[in-house]
Amino acid sequence: MSQFTLSVNGETRSIDIAGDTPLLWVLRDHLQLVGSKFGCGIGQCGACTVHLDGEPTRACITPVSDIGQRKITTIEGLSANGEHPLQIAWRELDVPQCGYCQAGQIMTAAALLKKSPRPSDQEIDAELEGNLCRCGTYLRIRAGIHRAAE
Ligand code: FES
């Protein structure tokens, strides 16, 4: 066990835990931030995507000891009261079906909009290709990103 001090959604959180513990478990089991989901556990589906210093990152394969001073943002910290333009667009367009993958989709999309405020379909598809949706909501996800970019 080691002591880690993490910046999570703008708050400083200290935790005593094994350094190889994946960030996803720290968030979900120790900090009760359960918006980030466990899908595959091997970095392949994107359900666990959070931001580290704004970069989309697979929390399921990121050991807590690798985080250092980087700032962690989860879906809970993306905006105050769920009012990020993507979250508004997701509601307006009923983007989710089962919803399980959508936090990861939104976190990846939010990082995309930061670097490309009006992304093309091609940019969206390229950026989100690692975020899988078993319900096949890809066209609505794309529409939601365009709506948020307006
Ligand atoms: Fe992390 Fe699938 S649960 S990428």
UniProtKB/TrEMBL annotation:
<dbReference type="InterPro" id="IPR036884">
    <property type="entry name" value="2Fe-2S-bd_dom_sf"/>
</dbReference>
<dbReference type="InterPro" id="IPR051452">
    <property type="entry name" value="Diverse_Oxidoreductases"/>
</dbReference>
<dbReference type="InterPro" id="IPR006058">
    <property type="entry name" value="2Fe2S_fd_BS"/>
</dbReference>
<keyword id="KW-0001">2Fe-2S</keyword>
<keyword id="KW-0408">Iron</keyword>
<feature type="domain" description="2Fe-2S ferredoxin-type">
    <location>
        <begin position="2"/>
        <end position="78"/>
    </location>
</feature>
<dbReference type="InterPro" id="IPR036010">
    <property type="entry name" value="2Fe-2S_ferredoxin-like_sf"/>
</dbReference>
<protein>
    <submittedName>
        <fullName>(2Fe-2S)-binding protein</fullName>
    </submittedName>
</protein>
<keyword id="KW-0560">Oxidoreductase</keyword>
<keyword id="KW-0411">Iron-sulfur</keyword>
<dbReference type="Pfam" id="PF00111">
    <property type="entry name" value="Fer2"/>
</dbReference>
<dbReference type="InterPro" id="IPR001041">
    <property type="entry name" value="2Fe-2S_ferredoxin-type"/>
</dbReference>
<keyword id="KW-0479">Metal-binding</keyword>
<dbReference type="InterPro" id="IPR012675">
    <property type="entry name" value="Beta-grasp_dom_sf"/>
</dbReference>
<dbReference type="Pfam" id="PF01799">
    <property type="entry name" value="Fer2_2"/>
</dbReference>
<dbReference type="InterPro" id="IPR002888">
    <property type="entry name" value="2Fe-2S-bd"/>
</dbReference>
